[in-house]
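Example record used in the benchmark description.
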Amino acid sequence: MTPQPNPEAGAAVKAADRAHVFHSWSAQELIDPLAVAGAEGSYFWDYEGRRYLDFTSGLVYTNIGYQHPKVVAAIQEQAARMTTFAPAFAVEARSEAARLIAGRTPGDLDKIFFTNGGADAVEHALRMARLHTGRPKVLSAYRSYHGGTQQAVNVTGDPRRWASDSATAGVVHFWAPFLYRSRFYAETEEQECARALEHLETTIAFEGPSTIAAVILETVPGTAGIMPPPPGYLAGVRELCDKYGIVLVLDEVMAGFGRTGTWFAADLYDVVPDLMTFAKGVNSGYVPLGGVAISAEIAATFATRPYPGGLTYSGHPLACAAAVATINVMEEEGLVENAAVLGASVVGPGLRELAERHPSVGEVRGSGMFWAVELVRDRETREPLVPYNASGEANAPMAAFAAAAKKAGLWPFVNMNRTHVVPPLNTSEAELKEGLAALDAALSVADEYVR
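Model output (structure tokens):
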């Protein structure tokens, strides 16, 4: 579709937004939302006719891009047949979505509890873990994000938790491995893995194993920095959970459904959790949907004992029809494989080549269509380009970088001192190279702040 400028319509959309929409995670009078006129594939455009290549996939969820015709048609067909129905009934779209998801989850995660999104998937996974074990505490990592609802934000390990953390949620945080900014004075991945596991086991011991219901981890942390765990770490966490009777919950809300080049990031590490949360890419975000994939052992806990939880829109037919169509599109078009191939042959090499030429790039890491570029003022000291949780003038270098990317036609995912490269899984090689060229130009601006 060719963008058609319509500034008057854009002004009206913007005015209504500013008058009535309350935006998340924002000081309402300090934001200036872009009025979006349309989107298709890997691009969206504004009412001035400016088109942007979307390297954010929305909020890392449009895994098949915008407006995929087969998924749009599936939603339309479902709406004509059965727009909605209560969750206590067996409905074709719901049953088929559950079957397709269970067929791709690792191990025996064959029961699917549907939610409206990722945060409430985390809420219910932790409730299941506590009820299954009869224990109150949950261990979660710093440098993590699990959602904005009360329990989910309390297991989150970034500053968005602070305002809601009353220290009454039964959550204990620990350090997960991240060699580039190691908390364990490690020099190799092997050291980082061993010391992180020792730290976790010590935390378990000092908190009391009999009080801990679950350890929750993003399989590959997303918003916090796309930090693939070192080989052996997740297997080691699995062993610790088995040793102490703790439920292992893997959060795949962002990393799941092809993002890392496998159906689930857990497949990269050959680890099977007891519970797995998902959302976002399950239906490319076309209709809100999330869920918990449940192991046989935990499902058995609620075989004759009612599970005390549910949602009015659990397994909503429109959302599930979108999930069925999305999963089928991903299979038919080989999008998981496409993400793996282009991530290894185009994105990874392209970002590493940029790192060689731009002194503001401290590290590049990721797989599939799930990459982070760490921006620094000094490669030797690894001082971040902006301070942790910077805002206002302190965040000026990252704001300048983002503005330069947008000027070059690229919409970047920016968080703290990083930009994440997370385009749709069906972004073409030519589009990826277009985005890398725009990123190249923007990094030249970041270079101006290097010491």
